[in-house]
UniProtKB/TrEMBL annotation:
It comes from the Eukaryota. One of its GO terms (molecular function) is oxidoreductase activity. Residues 23-109 form the NADP-dependent oxidoreductase domain. This is NADP-dependent oxidoreductase domain-containing protein. It holds the Pfam family Aldo_ket_red. The lineage of its organism: Eukaryota, Viridiplantae, Streptophyta, Embryophyta, Tracheophyta. Signal peptide: none annotated. InterPro entries: AKR (IPR020471), NAD(P)_OxRdtase_dom_sf (IPR036812), NADP_OxRdtase_dom (IPR023210).
Length: 125
Protein backbone atom coordinates (compact mmCIF):
# COMPACT_ATOMS: atom_id res chain seq x y z
CA UNK A 1 0.00 0.00 0.00
CA UNK A 2 1.42 3.33 -0.99
CA UNK A 3 0.82 6.61 0.71
CA UNK A 4 0.99 10.05 -0.80
CA UNK A 5 1.81 13.32 0.86
CA UNK A 6 -0.22 16.36 -0.07
CA UNK A 7 1.86 19.47 -0.64
CA UNK A 8 0.63 22.99 -0.29
CA UNK A 9 1.38 24.86 -3.50
CA UNK A 10 1.72 28.61 -3.22
CA UNK A 11 -0.51 30.97 -5.13
CA UNK A 12 0.61 34.28 -6.57
CA UNK A 13 -2.10 36.93 -6.72
CA UNK A 14 -1.28 39.57 -9.34
CA UNK A 15 -3.09 42.90 -9.30
CA UNK A 16 -6.21 41.39 -10.85
CA UNK A 17 -9.00 39.07 -9.88
CA UNK A 18 -7.26 35.73 -10.40
CA UNK A 19 -4.61 33.75 -8.58
CA UNK A 20 -1.91 31.67 -10.22
CA UNK A 21 -0.19 28.63 -8.77
CA UNK A 22 3.58 28.96 -8.80
CA UNK A 23 4.12 25.30 -9.72
CA UNK A 24 2.67 24.02 -12.97
CA UNK A 25 2.61 20.94 -15.16
CA UNK A 26 4.52 21.51 -18.39
CA UNK A 27 3.38 19.76 -21.54
CA UNK A 28 6.59 20.28 -23.54
CA UNK A 29 8.34 17.09 -22.44
CA UNK A 30 6.07 14.84 -24.49
CA UNK A 31 7.99 13.26 -27.35
CA UNK A 32 5.12 11.49 -29.04
CA UNK A 33 2.41 12.37 -31.51
CA UNK A 34 -0.09 10.21 -29.63
CA UNK A 35 -2.75 12.56 -28.28
CA UNK A 36 -3.99 9.94 -25.83
CA UNK A 37 -0.65 9.98 -24.02
CA UNK A 38 -0.87 13.76 -23.61
CA UNK A 39 -4.49 13.59 -22.50
CA UNK A 40 -3.89 10.84 -19.95
CA UNK A 41 -0.83 12.61 -18.55
CA UNK A 42 -2.81 15.81 -18.00
CA UNK A 43 -5.66 13.86 -16.42
CA UNK A 44 -3.26 12.13 -14.04
CA UNK A 45 -1.70 15.48 -13.17
CA UNK A 46 -5.14 16.84 -12.29
CA UNK A 47 -5.76 13.76 -10.12
CA UNK A 48 -2.51 14.68 -8.32
CA UNK A 49 -3.90 18.20 -7.72
CA UNK A 50 -1.98 20.06 -10.42
CA UNK A 51 -4.06 23.07 -11.43
CA UNK A 52 -1.57 25.12 -13.49
CA UNK A 53 -0.70 23.86 -16.97
CA UNK A 54 1.83 25.26 -19.42
CA UNK A 55 1.51 24.78 -23.17
CA UNK A 56 2.52 26.25 -26.53
CA UNK A 57 1.36 25.56 -30.07
CA UNK A 58 4.83 24.28 -30.93
CA UNK A 59 4.39 21.48 -28.36
CA UNK A 60 1.43 20.01 -30.21
CA UNK A 61 -0.35 19.32 -26.92
CA UNK A 62 -3.04 22.02 -26.88
CA UNK A 63 -5.81 19.79 -28.24
CA UNK A 64 -5.02 16.97 -25.81
CA UNK A 65 -4.97 19.49 -22.94
CA UNK A 66 -8.45 20.70 -23.92
CA UNK A 67 -9.73 17.12 -24.25
CA UNK A 68 -8.35 16.24 -20.82
CA UNK A 69 -10.08 19.23 -19.27
CA UNK A 70 -13.41 18.20 -20.81
CA UNK A 71 -12.93 14.64 -19.55
CA UNK A 72 -12.01 15.57 -15.95
CA UNK A 73 -15.05 17.86 -15.84
CA UNK A 74 -17.24 14.92 -16.92
CA UNK A 75 -15.61 12.69 -14.31
CA UNK A 76 -16.12 15.30 -11.59
CA UNK A 77 -12.41 15.58 -10.78
CA UNK A 78 -12.85 19.35 -11.01
CA UNK A 79 -16.14 21.20 -10.81
CA UNK A 80 -15.27 24.06 -13.14
CA UNK A 81 -12.70 25.09 -15.74
CA UNK A 82 -12.12 28.08 -13.44
CA UNK A 83 -10.17 25.76 -11.10
CA UNK A 84 -7.40 25.55 -13.70
CA UNK A 85 -4.81 28.09 -14.80
CA UNK A 86 -3.47 27.59 -18.32
CA UNK A 87 -0.37 29.39 -19.57
CA UNK A 88 0.01 29.65 -23.35
CA UNK A 89 3.32 30.56 -24.94
CA UNK A 90 3.41 32.59 -28.11
CA UNK A 91 6.17 31.18 -30.27
CA UNK A 92 8.87 33.37 -31.84
CA UNK A 93 7.53 32.93 -35.37
CA UNK A 94 4.22 34.45 -34.22
CA UNK A 95 5.81 37.33 -32.31
CA UNK A 96 4.84 40.04 -34.79
CA UNK A 97 2.02 42.55 -34.29
CA UNK A 98 -0.03 41.10 -37.16
CA UNK A 99 0.41 37.50 -36.01
CA UNK A 100 -0.10 37.68 -32.22
CA UNK A 101 -3.89 37.72 -32.09
CA UNK A 102 -4.39 35.04 -34.78
CA UNK A 103 -1.84 32.78 -33.04
CA UNK A 104 -3.54 33.15 -29.65
CA UNK A 105 -6.96 32.56 -31.21
CA UNK A 106 -5.59 29.41 -32.85
CA UNK A 107 -4.27 28.19 -29.49
CA UNK A 108 -7.67 28.79 -27.87
CA UNK A 109 -9.37 26.96 -30.73
CA UNK A 110 -6.92 24.03 -30.60
CA UNK A 111 -7.46 23.61 -26.87
CA UNK A 112 -11.25 24.23 -27.03
CA UNK A 113 -10.83 26.87 -24.33
CA UNK A 114 -12.61 30.21 -24.34
CA UNK A 115 -10.56 32.21 -21.85
CA UNK A 116 -6.93 33.23 -21.92
CA UNK A 117 -5.46 34.61 -18.68
CA UNK A 118 -1.75 34.49 -19.44
CA UNK A 119 0.20 34.35 -22.69
CA UNK A 120 3.97 34.50 -22.63
CA UNK A 121 6.33 35.24 -25.50
CA UNK A 122 8.76 32.39 -26.01
CA UNK A 123 12.36 33.47 -26.48
CA UNK A 124 15.75 31.96 -26.98
CA UNK A 125 18.05 31.97 -23.92
Amino acid sequence: MSSTTQLAILNVVPQSSFSMLVIGFGTAAFETDEGDVHKLAVMEAIKLDYRHFDTASIYGSEQALGEAIVEVLKLGLISSRDELFITFKLWLSDNHPDLVLPALCKSLHNSSLVLLLLALTARYP
